[in-house]
């Protein structure tokens, strides 16, 4: 999965942006710049465009950390955990999620608001915002194309994973073999176009509509 603009905006809100190098903690060996990018020289200066580029590079690492958990998080849960990892690191992410279900993770987020055993107001606000995002239901818009009549049938162009929801982050129910016919009773649109038949969801990008 990739973080959404909603998640990126949350990170930007709490990190802020600084275009000259600084040390948020005096004992740090190296300096920070941009949206919390660590590891630059003392005299470093960048543009806003460079800050955005640093952010993209850093986000990839933290997205991978959450993806490595191999948990079926929805987009809001994923975004909240990427923000948490951006701030607290991969080790704390693993500690947060180990042996916890999603409701327990949401509550445990609030525990990570200390630095040097001291509760910090800024960290408390950030954890509350991440928890709120984590608990916000992720609603996928369901639409029907203007001239598209439902239901209709499609044929799979390849072996296709059938999932419990409209997204690759949802668990797989089964695999439809290449050439299998599937009925489309509803169309779900997000980053891709998904067909729905009962409790089964499948990506229509890998199907061909049966012309009758």
What does this structure look like?
The chain has 212 residues and is of the alpha+beta class. 35% of the residues lie in helices and 24% in strands. It contains six helices and 13 strands. The strands form five sheets. The protein has a three-stranded antiparallel β-sheet with strand order 1-2-3. A three-stranded antiparallel β-sheet has the order 9-6-13, with no helix packed on it. A three-stranded antiparallel β-sheet has the order 10-11-12, with no helix packed on it. Strand 1 and strand 2 (31-34) form a beta hairpin. Helix 1 (5-15) runs parallel beside helix 3. It is elongated and about 70 Å long. The mean pLDDT is 90.
Question: What key attributes describe this structure?
Answer:
single chain; 212 residues; alpha+beta; 3-stranded antiparallel β-sheet
Global geometry: elongated
What gyration radius follows from the Cα positions, in whole Å?
21 Å
Largest sheet: spatial strand order? 1-2-3
The percentage of residues in β strands lies in 15-25%
Please state the average pLDDT score. Answer: 90
- The SSE string, one letter per element, is HEEEHHHHEEHEEEEEEEE
Summing up helix and strand content along with how strands pair, one would put the structural category as: alpha+beta
Give the low-confidence spans. Answer: none
N-to-C CA distance: 36 Å
Strand segment count: 13
Mind summarizing the main beta sheet?
Answer: 3 strands, antiparallel
Helix content: 25-40%
Please work out how many helical segments DSSP would assign.
6
Write a compact overview of the structure shown.
With 212 residues, this protein is an alpha+beta fold. It has 6 helices and 13 strands.
């Amino acid at each position: 999965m990739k973080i959404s603009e909603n998640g990126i905006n949350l990170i930007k809100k709490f990190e802020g942006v600084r275009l000259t190098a600084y040390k948020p903690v005096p004992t740090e060996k190296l300096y920070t710049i941009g949206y919390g990018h660590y590891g630059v020289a003392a005299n470093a200066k960048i543009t806003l465009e460079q800050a955005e580029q640093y952010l993209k590079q850093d986000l990839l690492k933290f997205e991978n950390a959450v993806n490595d958990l191999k948990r079926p998080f929805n987009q809001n849960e994923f975004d909240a955990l990427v923000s948490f990892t951006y701030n607290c690191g991969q080790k704390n992410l693993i500690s947060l999620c180990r042996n916890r279900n999603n409701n327990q993770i949401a509550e445990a987020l609030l525990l990570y608001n200390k630095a040097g055993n001291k509760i910090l107001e800024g960290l408390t606000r950030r954890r509350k915002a991440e928890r709120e995002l984590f608990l916000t239901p992720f609603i996928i818009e369901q639409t029907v194309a203007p001239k598209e009549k439902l239901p209709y049938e499609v044929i799979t162009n390849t072996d296709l994973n059938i999932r419990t929801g409209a997204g690759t982050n949802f668990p797989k129910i089964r695999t439809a073999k290449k050439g299998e016919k599937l009925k489309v009773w509803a169309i779900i649109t997000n980053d891709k176009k998904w067909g729905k038949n009962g409790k089964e969801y499948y990506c229509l990008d890998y199907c061909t509509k049966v012309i009758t």
